[in-house]
Amino acid sequence: MSGEPSIFFADVNERQGSFLRRTFVLGGVSALGITALIGRLGQLQVVQAQEYATLSSQNQFNFRMVPPPRGLIKDRNGVVIAGNRPSFRVLVVRDETKDLDQTLDLLGRLLPDTLERRRAIIRDVNAASKFNPVPVKSDLTWEEFAKVNQYANELPGVMVDMNEARYYPFGGSFAHVIGYVAKVSDRDVKAIRDKGEQPPALLFNPSFRIGRQGVEKALDLSLRGEPGGNRVEVDARGRVVAEDIGGSRPAVPGKEVILTLDADVQNRALEVFGDESGACVVMDVRNGDILCMMSAPSFDPNLFVGGVPTKTYRALADYERKPLLDKTLNGTFPPGSTFKPTTALALLEAGVDPNLTVFCSGSYRTGNRTQRCWGRHGTQNMHDAIKNSCDVYFYAMCNRAGVDNIRKAGLALGFEHEFDIGVGNQRKGLLPSTEWKARTFPRDPVWHPGETTSVAIGQGAITVNALQLAVMTSRLANGKKQLQPRLIKSIGGVEQPSGAEAPDLPFDPAHVEYVRQGMIAVANDRSGTAYRQSQLGLGDIQMAGKTGTAQVRNYGTGSRKSEIWALKDHNLFVAFAPVDAPRYAVAIIVEHGGKGGATAGAPRAREVMRTVLLKDPDMRARIERPLPPEPTGAAIVEDGVVGAAPEPDVVATPQAPRAAPTTTSGPRPYLSEPRR
C-alpha cells in the first residue's frame, strides 16, 4: 500500500566489492612506490655506487695548493745567485679564529713588527678563500718561533710551519740585473685580465711570489714551476683533521736559469765603486757574453721578498743617488769623450785623411761662440787627438762627416739600440740627426754646424747607457762583428744563441784598426790621458781605453767644480784587453764623480779588468812571462784635470765685420796638409 513505509536492503556482496576495489588501488600504488624505492636504492647502491663514493670522498678530502719551489738562477760557473732557503712563518686561518682582532693583538705582543702591517694583514686574511692559511710573518727567529708555539693554545686559527723563501746570497751585487720577487698585487692580476687571459689559481695563493724587475720578472713563467697539492681530510665545516700523504701531488720546481755573469767580477765591481753612483758592464769580445752588469749604489733584494717596510722603501726611493734605478740599462748619460772613437770612425768612413792636422790652442771659435778644450795640445792628427782626447781637433773636423754620418757610425756600434738580452725596460738613449732636429724643434728645424761640434765630443743632445758603451767597445775590440750582448746562457738546460752570430761591421777594417791604435795609445803611451791609471801589472798584458768626462750643466763663466753632488760632472772610461788579442771589454760610468775620466773611471776599470783576466786560465799563463822593458821618456801632463770636460763655452761680443777675420781668444785653429 502507498501509505506504508518502503524498506531497502543493501547487497552485502556489493559493499564488499567496493572495499576490495579500494584496497586493490591503494595496494597497487604502495607496491609501485616500494618497487620504485627499491629500484632507486639498487641504482644508488649498485649502479652508481662508485660515483657517489667519489663524491663522498671529495667532501671528506680536499686538495690544498702548494706553491712550487722557484727555479734557481746561477752564474756562468754554477754559483747560485738566486736560490731558495727554509723559512719559519706564522699563518692565520680566518675561519678558525674566534676573534681576528683579538688574535692579532696577541700576535702583536709576541711579534711587535706585525703591528706595523696590521691593516695589510687584515686585508690579506679577509681576501683569502675559506680555511686558506695566510702568512702573517716569514723568517721567524728561533726565539719568535718558540714564543708562538708557547702560546699556541691561546691562538686559535694560528699555525707555524716551514716553507721555502727566495734568497739572494750576494745581496746587492745582482739586485738590478736579477731583480727580486714580491707578493702578487691587484695590478698584476689586472694586467693579465687586460690581455684577455685568465689568471692562474697559483697567483691567488698567499704564499706565492711573482718576479719583479730584471731576470726574475723577464723569466717569471719559466722560473715559476707547476704547483702541487696536499690531500687533506676535513670535517663538515671544512677544517683540516688529517693529511693523506699518499694522495698528495708534489710541486714541480721551476726551470734552472744559467746567466753569463761571473759572481766574482760582479762583486768586485760593486766593491770598487764604494759610495759612488754609476754602472759597470763587462763583455767578452769574442762571443758577446756579459760577465758583469752592475749598478751602484744598490739595495738588498732580500728585503722585498717578505714585503719591505714603507719607511725603508721611501728611504731608498728618495735617495738622490737612486739605488732602485738600474743605471746599466735605464740610466742614460752623455758619453763625453768616450764617443770620440765613434766620431773618428765616421770621419774615416767619410774620407777624411787621418794625417790631416789641427792646431789646438785650447779653444775653437764657431760663429759667435768659443768652445774650450781641456788642454792646449798643439798640432794634432787623428791618432794624437784620440790619445790626448783633444776636443779642438774634433770641433774642427766633425762637420766634414756631418751629424748624420756620425749617427750612422754610432748606430753600427750599438748606440740607440734596445738589445735582446732577455731583460726589457731598456732606455735606448739618443743619437741626434738632422731629421730628429726638424721633428723635435719645428720652430728651428735647421741643423747648425755648431751643434755637430757638441755631438762630436759626446755632449749636446746625445745620450747613451752603460751597456751600449760596452757594446761599442766590444765591437771595436773584435774588429769584425757587430756582436750582440748575451745575458741568458741557458734556460732549463736549453742553450741560448751566442752573440757572435752577428753580421759584419760596416767599416773598413783598416779604419777600425786605426781607432783601436788610438785607444791603445790612451792607456799605454806615456803621454796618453790614462797611462798611469791603466797599467794592469799583469805581465805583458796591456789594456787599451778611452777617457771621458761629461758636463751636466752650463758652466757659464764660472768654475765647473762644485760641492753639490748633482752638479758635478760624470766620469766615464771604456777599455779592452789584451791589446794584441782582445778578449774582454769594460765600460764604467761614475755618475757625478766630479773628477776626470782617467781619475775616477780608469782605476775602477783597471781593477775590474784585473779580476776578469786573473780568472782566465790563458791569461794567468801569460802573467808568468817576464815583463817587457820599460819605455823611455817622461810623461807629459797638461794643466788641468786629465780627461776633463771642456772649459766653459764663451759667447763673444758681436763685432762689426772686418776685412780680415780675427778672434777674441788667441790664434784661430788651422788645418795643415799632412807632413810627408
UniProtKB/TrEMBL annotation:
Q: An example Gene Ontology cellular component term from the record?
A: plasma membrane
Question: Under which main EC class is this enzyme filed?
Answer: hydrolase
EC annotation from Swiss-Prot or TrEMBL = 3.4.16.4
Q: Which GO terms describe its biological process?
A: cell wall organization; peptidoglycan biosynthetic process; proteolysis; regulation of cell shape
Question: Per its UniProt record, what Pfam families does this chain match?
Answer: PBP_dimer, Transpeptidase
Instruction: Cite the record's Low complexity compositional bias ranges.
Output: 652-664
**Any idea which UniProt keywords this protein has?**
Carboxypeptidase, Cell inner membrane, Cell membrane, Cell shape, Cell wall biogenesis/degradation, Hydrolase, Membrane, Peptidoglycan synthesis, Protease, Transmembrane, Transmembrane helix
User: What membrane topology does the annotation report for this chain?
Assistant: Single-pass membrane protein
Question: Where is region (Disordered) located?
Answer: 645-676
List the InterPro entries: Beta-lactam/transpept, Beta-lactam/transpept-like, PBP_dimer, PBP_dimer_sf, PCN-bd_Tpept, Penicillin-binding_protein_2
Q: Where, subcellularly, is it found?
A: Cell membrane; Membrane
Indicate whether DNA-binding appears among the record's keywords. no
Q: Which residues form the Penicillin-binding protein transpeptidase domain?
A: 278-609
Q: Where in this chain does the record put each Penicillin-binding protein dimerisation domain? A: 66-243
> What is the name of the protein in this document?
Penicillin-binding protein 2
**Upper lineage ranks?**
Bacteria, Pseudomonadati, Pseudomonadota, Alphaproteobacteria, Caulobacterales
